[in-house]
Design brief:
heterodimer; A: alpha+beta; Sodium/glucose cotransporter; five-stranded antiparallel sheet; globular; B: 4 helices; 2 strands
Chain lengths: 654, 126
């Protein structure tokens, strides 16, 4: 190796990793403290309303931050940075509708939904729908859809949380030792052995048990208080990263200038050859190792990165069909080589590369196409239309602002604020909060493209990697622990809310409203604890052998919920004429139309998670159009609701 | 909204709840702002940013591509200013009323007890 890792590197990595562990422990303790405090409050108030809705008394900060934190799932700090890194400045347009997301998601439905829930005494979203239409069937349909979508989503979120925690604790000695011990304990238990490894399982059980315990014990208020803490962690993380990133890249001018010169890397497969003099027992090439191929004309060498850990067996000198990534931008090659010289990157000079078979990007590597990272639609390895063609740019404007309004987890929060003054101030607070998070994230991870070339193969790790890189450069490695807590906080705040939504659907909407309306508070209380515990445990076990397509499941369930709920809810709040038949058909039609796009994708594109895009639009648009249309058409064709019902929800009370 | 006037039990016309009317008006304005944001951001970015003729000197301001600055960043700031105006100077401060905790369950329990009672009365009449 030309530049073996100097001793200082593991020391630095260890310092920030231990900081990560300490941050995580402090964080978990704080979460449990908040749960205990909220349980004390729980004993003094009406149980159901307090446990599932915080007694409708959320003030500005609690309401604003629980809304913001729940909406920002782990994707905001893992998937989104990864996309910025991979596709460049076009992500500013992809996320652009967040300029109106707070006012849309809180303002469109907030005031009326809160009022209607107060009039009827509703505690859950299915409750509101059932009471507004006086229809038990419609209520049950709403419950079924929520449980269906949320269960899948919950499993996916548990997996996301565990993977983030695993990244966070990666390299921490006590964690590594515990994982080895844990791996020995589960040997022979097939169900656990077939999982994603002992490190993943350990993180899953730690993360899962923490969330289940504090959510079960503290209920909605614990979830809200932890959301507030998590919301603060997220914004502080971003505000620290932003100036560090801009100053270390030499200003945004420099970042954009360098990005304009960049070409996407070339993925491919190659044969690694080990130098004749080196024939140890075996030669391990860790993931992320750089390899150079000298250029005959003496200029810059070819630079490739090995993207899976590869072992060259004893008495052999080659490994074939190894996945590699070739960096082709001259500036990036210089950056990596200087980082190798400084000991920040690992280069194996005993290796050479032959027989490189490239798999070019579908869009962005054409010789005449310049500046793909600073223009639309952005480079794409898999789509010849680029990352964000016009139709998808429009779809994402619907997706974030309109589909966000149709999420039941957001609706529940809209039922919990104290008064309309709180709503007004909270919309403003969330608007400022999102402005401080999302656009700065675009700036930070555009800088990451310049500072850390060659991360495409593991771009989901760009957030913790960047946090570590920026803080170590200024000698504050310990700060990385705080910064990487942000994505963990984001996913935790989403999981706890979803968990409570499913258990409230089971206890309130199925048991109390359909089986035993006269159940005593004591029974309801015990069932609430029991179901929260059971649902959480089931989701955790479901994530032991989790499905692939994590992000796809989250997108499918989020857009499916919006397609099913937004139309019926908008009309329920704003159209006195709408009736049960209209709402029910809108809900079923939205669900079916959206699902059919995915089923069609299975036949046309070969995978359920590659949905058919009608006129290149996302399935959410088809679902919403069909749902809204069906509500109007069926309502017009069927008798109006009773005047008593309309008076109750639309007229002045005397 | 329904075209025929609503009447109460005594046949008098009833008025729509002001909270409903205010929320309805506010929702229309919010939706219009979303449409405006869509109609500005997407076409502007598409017309100015989807090009292979990008010149760093000419097409960058404050270190940000001009199409991002004018298509997303500036509208974002304007949207925030609008949000301030909307929240503090336009949106009505309505009384959302007291929560009738348990009202829906009480109604159901009453119906539950009324049903066998009615069945019993019918049986007695028969």
């Amino acid at each position: 190796m030309s530049a073996p890792l100097p001793h200082i590197l593991p020391v630095l990595a260890q310092a920030s990793s231990n900081a990560a562990l300490i941050t995580f422990l402090i964080y978990t303790l704080a979460v449990f403290g908040l749960a205990a405090a909220s349980n004390i409050l729980l004993r003094k108030k009406s149980f159901l309303s307090e446990y599932f809705l915080g007694s409708r008394s959320l003030g500005v900060w609690a309401f604003a931050l629980t809304f913001a934190a729940t909406s920002s799932s782990g994707g905001s700090f893992t998937g989104f940075p990864s996309k910025i890194y991979t596709h460049g400045w076009v992500l500013a347009l992809w996320i652009g509708s967040y300029m109106v997301v707070p006012i849309c998601t809180m303002g469109l439905l907030g005031k009326r939904l809160n009022q209607i829930a107060r009039i009827s005494g509703s505690i859950t979203v299915p409750d509101v729908i059932r009471d507004r239409f006086l229809s038990a069937k419609l209520g049950l349909l709403a419950v079924s859809l929520i449980v269906f979508f949320m269960s899948f989503n919950l499993v996916a979120q548990f997996k996301a949380g565990s993977l983030i925690l695993q990244t966070l604790l990666n390299g921490v000695e006590p964690f590594s030792k515990s994982a080895v011990w844990f791996g020995q304990q589960i040997q022979g238990i097939g169900f656990l052995e077939n999982s994603l490894g002992p490190e993943y399982l350990l993180c899953l059980f730690t993360f899962g048990l923490a969330v289940i315990i504090y959510t079960t014990y503290g209920g909605f208020r614990a979830v809200v208080w932890t959301d507030v803490m998590q919301g603060v962690v997220m914004v502080v993380g971003v505000l620290i990263l932003l100036p560090l990133a801009i100053s270390q890249v030499g200003g945004m001018d420099n970042a954009t200038r360098q990005m304009a010169e960049m070409s996407p890397p070339r993925r491919g497969r190659a044969t690694l050859l080990l130098a004749e003099s080196e024939r140890p027992a075996q030669h391990v090439v860790p993931m992320g190792t750089w390899v150079t191929v000298p250029n005959p004309d003496g200029n810059r060498p070819q630079l490739l990165r090995v993207i899976t850990t590869t072992v060259i067996p004893p008495e052999q000198n080659r490994a074939e069909d190894v996945a590699v990534l070739e960096i082709v931008t001259p500036g990036d090659i210089d950056t990596v080589l200087s980082r190798v010289k400084a000991g920040h990157e690992q280069l194996d000079d005993q290796l050479s590369v032959v027989d490189i078979a490239h798999e070019p990007y579908e869009y962005g590597t054409e010789p005449d196409r310049k500046g793909v990272y600073v223009t639309g639609p952005g480079p794409s390895p898999s789509s010849q239309h680029g990352f964000l063609p016009l139709s998808l740019a429009i779809s994402f404007f619907f997706m974030w602002a309109i589909s966000g309004s149709g999420q039941p987890s957001n609706m529940v929060r809209l039922m919990a604020f104290k008064d309309s003054t709180t709503l007004r101030r909270a919309i403003f607070t969330v608007a400022i909060y999102y402005t401080m998070i999302y656009f700065p994230l675009v700036l930070i991870f555009c800088c990451a493209r310049v500072l850390m070339p060659g991360m495409e193969a593991e771009s989901d790790r760009i957030m913790p990697a960047m946090a570590r890189f920026l803080t170590e450069n200024i000698g504050w490695g310990w700060l990385a622990g705080l910064l990487v807590a942000a994505p963990f906080a984001a996913v935790m705040s989403t999981v706890d809310s979803f968990l409570l939504m499913i258990s409230s659907a089971l206890v309130r909407d199925i048991y109390q409203r359909n089986i035993n309306p006269e159940a005593s508070e004591r029974i309801i209380k015990r069932l609430s604890y029991l179901f929260t515990l059971l649902v959480g445990s089931a989701a955790m076990l479901g994530a032991v052998n989790p499905p692939d397509f994590l992000q796809d499941i989250i997108v499918y369930t989020g857009s499916g919920l919006a397609a099913s709920f937004l139309g019926p809810m908008v009309f329920a709040l704003y159209w006195p004429r709408v009736n049960t038949a209209g709402a029910m058909s809108g809900m079923i039609a939205g669900f079916t139309a959206h699902l059919s796009m995915y089923f069609t994708g299975m036949f046309v594109n070969g995978s359920f998670f590659r949905p058919y895009r009608f006129m290149n639009f996302d399935p959410i648009i088809v679902g919403l159009v069909v749902s809204f249309t069906m509500v109007v058409v069926v309502t017009k064709l069927t008798p109006p609701p009773s005047e008593k019902l309309v008076r109750k929800f639309f007229c002045k009370s005397k | 909204m329904s075209s025929s006037p609503l009447l109460d039990e005594t046949g008098h016309q009833v008025e729509y709840d002001p909270v409903f009317l205010h929320a309805h008006r506010e929702a229309i304005i919010i939706f219009s702002v979303w449409v405006l944001a869509l109609l500005w951001a997407v076409p502007y970015c598409y017309l100015n940013g989807y090009t292979s003729d990008f010149d760093v000197q000419r097409d960058t301001m404050l270190g940000i591509p001009s199409w991002v600055l004018w298509g997303v960043a500036v509208p974002w700031l304007l949207a925030d200013i609008f949000t301030v105006w909307f929240c503090f100077f336009y949106m009505a401060d309505d009384d959302l009323g007291e929560a009738h905790e348990g009202a829906d369950i009480e109604e159901e329990i009453a119906e539950l007890h009324a049903a066998p009672q009615a069945a019993g009365e019918k049986g007695a009449e028969a």
